[in-house]
Amino acid sequence: MRREPFPRLDTQADLHARLLGFCRLRAGEVWQDPVRGHRVGVLDAAREEDVGVLMDGQAAQLGIHDPPYNIGVGRRRSPALFRMDIQAYMRFSRAWVFPAVSALDTHAAFYLWLGADQEAGFQPLPEFMLLMREVPGLVSRSFITMRNQRGYGTQKNWMALRQELLYYAKGTPPFHVVYTDIPKTLKGYYKEVGGRKTSNEERGKAGTLRPGNVWGDIQQVFYRREENVPGAYAQKPLAAIERIIRASSSPGRIVSDFFAHSGTSLVAAERLGRKCYTMDIDPVFAEIAIRRLERLRATGKTGWQTENPFPELAG
Ligand SMILES: C[S@@+](CC[C@H](N)C(=O)[O-])C[C@H]1O[C@@H](n2cnc3c(N)ncnc32)[C@H](O)[C@@H]1O
Question: pTM of the full predicted structure?
Fold first, then answer.
């Protein structure tokens, strides 16, 4: 099996600088998809004007945001996986959260990926939860934990395996029941419905379980998977984003994601018939997101696995 053609881009300043030459967008520009109407910008989520440029007067029915977590992951600290002073991080968070919620429709869902740094008082999760209470019109709906298969800190502490996902509602957005691939094994679980004793098999026709608020069934992205994007350092599994989109949006509607990175939300929206309005402050990741969409359309593949997203680099 080939390894990835290049390393995580956040640790390779020279390579990153070379890739900038292959990017179609400069800061402040937006790519408008001629086929399905997706939009990808090189914009700053913390600038209200930039959010306006991306949204172009439209409102999203679903926002899925995956900002930098303010956690240095194990020993892999880098300019992107950094930990700044919590006050500064919360100023940044406040600057993007309010415009992101304003960019939602009257009835919409808001999902936010976040971490809790066990080496620093579990910041920024509690601070973020308190900030979210200040956002007018939002109500908390679920606190989901996704389990990663690989963790860090195994010898001197419990292995850190979790990713947090907060789910809020504005108005009354749709919520569609979705299922995992895990077969139902529990039989004969009885409950009275309408004065009659019913078994769980009778009550629910689906053969598989619902995900609940702990997602242990989603495979993490790594280089052996087709969806892997070489150079990405924080890619979310497509299955997780597709689960959110299926549950909390309707076909044809807009999904916003202000931290595109590898373009997972863009690819998921394309596969599920939604429109994605997304941005990244880094032109290289905006370019990667657009190329990933183009590759999906050309080949049906969800990523590059170990191939090179920038073949023009060869030689
Ligand atoms: C955690 S990653 C998102 C991962 C993404 N969900 C995926 O599956 O690939 C965070 C991304 O946010 C971008 N970013 C950081 N600050 C930003 C800002 N102020 N505005 C827009 N994007 C930003 C980074 O360049 C990085 O690509």
Answer: 0.93
Distance CA 184, CA 209 (A): 6
Per-residue tokens: 99: 């415009």
Nearest to 259, CA basis, from 293, 239, 230, 286:
286
Compute the distance between CA of residue 189 and CA of residue 197 in angstroms, rounded to an integer: 10
- Ligand 1 centroid – CA 99 distance (Å): 16
Contact 117, 103 (CB under 8 A): no
Question: Domain 9-180+211-313 sits in which CATH superfamily?
Answer: Vaccinia Virus protein VP39 (3.40.50.150)
Q: Is 236 in the pocket of ligand 1 (CB under 6 A)?
A: yes
Q: Are 278 and 293 in contact (CB under 8 A)?
A: no
Write out pLDDT tens, residues 76-130. 556 565 678 999 999 999 999 999 999 999 999 999 999 999 889 999 999 999 9
Concatenating the DSSP letter of every residue in 229-283 gives -TT-SSPPPHHHHHHHHHHH--TT-EEEES--TTTHHHHHHHHTT-EEEEEESSH
Atom of ligand 1 nearest to the CA of 229: 9
Structural domain boundaries of the chain? 9-180+211-313
